[in-house]
C-alpha cells in the first residue's frame, strides 16, 4: 500500500487538472516506515532534516532516508539539546523545551513559561486572552512558526502569540489533546505538535488530529520534523509516519477510488469490502461476501450512473450496466419468482458457507437473538448447479435495489432492450411483494426476518417500531414501479395502502429516534434512499407536502453527522420541492381544505433547504485515500461532548461545535454508520472498504449541483 500511495501522490504532481482553485483541496496521506524500510525495531527518539533529507535517531544509531529506504548514516545528529543555563528561574522545575524568537530566549518548564529579559533575568510569562488567564504547567512544546508567531503547548492547552497578543486554545476551542511532547513548524504557517496520544496540526486556528494506525505507527510521538514541502516526519515508539499533504481535485480522487474498487472489490460484478489476511496489508486482500452485496453493488452502480449523467464517460456507462446486470441476477437466480438473493457465489467458494450456518448454529444463535431465522440451507444451489445464493433477504437489499432501478432507468438505460430489462425486474420484485401481502417470502414459504412491509406486522408487538420506515419504503417501491413500468396497478395498490392502512400517515414518522437501541444508523441509509424514489416520482401535491415534512424530520436527526450521502439526498430532494414551489406546483387554496392554512405553512417553513453544503465538501475532501478499517478511540479527546441521552452507550458524542468529528478522525468511512460513535473498529486493520463511500456522494452531489462542477 505504501508504494501505491507514493506513486499516486507523485503522479498527481504532474497530472494536475487546471479547472479552478475552488476544485482543489489538500489531501493528507500517511505512509508508515518501519523495519521493512530499514529502520530498527522499537522507538525512534529524534528526527531532523539534513539537507532536507530526514535523519532518524534511535538507540542503535542514526538512519537517513534516501527516498526509498532508511540506511545507517555516519552523519552526526545536529540536535540542539536544551541549553544548560547557569541560572534558572526559581521554582521552574525541569526545563522541557526551549526556543528563540526575535532574539529573546524562552524556556518551557514543569512550572511555567519563562523569557530571558535584556537584563539577563528570567521573567515568568502569564498568557491571557479574553477567555483565559494561565499560570502554565508542563510546557513541553515551544516553537516559532514561519510567520514569526510564538506557540507553546502546556497542560492548560495551546497558546499562540502574535505581535504581543495571545490567543489561547483548550478543548472548547477545538484542541483535541494536551499532553505534549514536542513541536515543529511547517513552511506555510502550520505548526505540528506531538503528544503522548497522537499528533496535532494547527492550521488557521483549526486543529487536525492524527492518531492511531491510520496515521501513526504508534500514538506516542517523540519528535517531529517538517520539510520544505510541508511533509511531516513523525517519530514514534514503533517507527516513523510520513504525512504528506498534496493538492487534488474531486475528479482525481474519484479516479483513484474507481481504480481501487475495480482492482480489489469486484467479484463477478458484485462490489463489497475485502478481507485482509495480514493486518494493514492491502496486498493480502481476499475477495469477500457480505449480507448486503446487492445494496452495495446497487450503490456503486448508482455512483457510476450519476457519473455518466454528469460526464458522459463511456466507462461509467459500462460499469453502471454491469452493476445493473449483477443486481438483476440476484433476482433471476432464485427459485422464488421476484425474490432477490443477498449474495451469489460459485459453487466451489472457498468458505463452507452452509456448514457455517448449520441448523445447530441457527438454534444456538436464537438463544441470543430470538428473531434469527432457522432456515437451512442458507445458501441454496442455483438451478444450473453452478452457484449458491444466500437467502433471508432484508429491507436493506430492497432499498438498494429500488434506489438503483429508478436511477439506472432514468440516467443510463438508453435502448429499448435496456429499459425492458429494468421494467421486467422491477415488476418481478414488486409483484412478489404484492402477491405475498407485502412481505418478502423465502423459498421455505415464510417471510424473511427483515422483509415485512404488511399492516399486520406493523400493528404487532414485533413490528410497531418499523411501521414508519417500512410504510414509507413500501410506498417508495410502488412509486418506482409505477414510474418505470408505467403500469397503473402500482398506483392503485399504493392508494389502497394509504386509504385503508394509512401508510402515508405512518410515513410521517420515517424512523425511530428513541430509545437508542431502536436507532440504528443503517436505517438512515434505507430511509433516505427510499425518499429519493418516493418524492421524485410522486405527483400528488398533498402527498408531496407530507413527504417533505417527513424528509425534514428524518434528516434533522442526522444533520450534524457530516455524512455526505445523507446530506446530498436531503439537499437534492429539498431543492426539488423548492423548485416545484417556485414553479407554482402547489395551489395552497386547493390543498388540505380541512385546514386551509396548513399548505402555506409547510411552504413557509420548508420551502427551502436548510442544508449547509460545506459539510458535504469537507467530508468528500477528508475521506482518506486509504480505506482500511481501523480501530479509532476518541473518548479521551478534550474537544468532544458525550451524548447525555438516557440509555445511550457511553462512547457516543460529538465535537464541541455540535457536529461529528471529521471523517478522517473517525473509525469508519462507510455511509451507513453512526458518526457520533467515538470508539469504533471497522475491521481493525483486517478489512478494506470499497471506494463507493466517496464515489456515490461525490457524483450524486455533482449531479444535483450541491458542489462545484
Automatic annotation (TrEMBL):
Q: Does the keyword Ribosomal protein apply?
A: no
Which named protein is this? Two component regulator propeller
Q: Which UniProt keywords apply?
A: Signal
Q: Spell out the Gene3D superfamilies in the cross-references.
A: YVTN repeat-like/Quinoprotein amine dehydrogenase
Keyword Signal attached: yes
For this protein, the record's SUPFAM superfamilies field holds:
Calcium-dependent phosphotriesterase
User: What organism is the protein native to?
Assistant: Maribacter aquimaris
So which residues are the signal peptide here? 1-20
